[in-house]
Amino acid sequence: MTCSRCEGLMVEEYLFDLDGGCAERWATSWRCVNCGQRDDAVIRRHRRTKSAAVPATCVVPEAAEFTTLQRFAA
Q1: pLDDT tens digits for 19-69?
Q2: Cβ atoms of residues 21 and 11 within 8 Å
Q3: Is the backbone of residue 73 left (phi > 0), alpha (psi -120 to 50) or beta?
Q4: CB neighbours of 27 closer than 8 A, spacing ≥ 6?
Q5: Residues 6 or more apart from 2 whose CB is under 8 A from it?
Q6: Contact 29/40 with Cβ under 8 angstroms?
Q7: Is 30 buried (19+), middle (13-18) or exposed (0-12) by CB count in 10 A?
Q8: 18 confidence band (pLDDT: 50, 70, 90)
Q9: Is 0.90 topped by the overall pTM?
């Protein structure tokens, strides 16, 4: 498995779930050895619900606004 952030190697880790109640106490997670990003079932579920709830839009500034921004940045 490769990391979605840096394309590095992901290794499987077993974590002790303190919020598990009486159910399963061990949770599995994937961690990138390069950048440390974690990926597990809860993270994937949150990403799916967020991407479905928030439409992806891109606002491109007009040419006049862009030159004004460049002037302030310099």
Answers
A1: 666 666 788 889 999 999 998 888 888 888 876 665 656 666 565 555 555
A2: no
A3: alpha
A4: 14, 15, 16, 17, 20, 40
A5: 8, 9, 10
A6: yes
A7: middle
A8: confident
A9: no
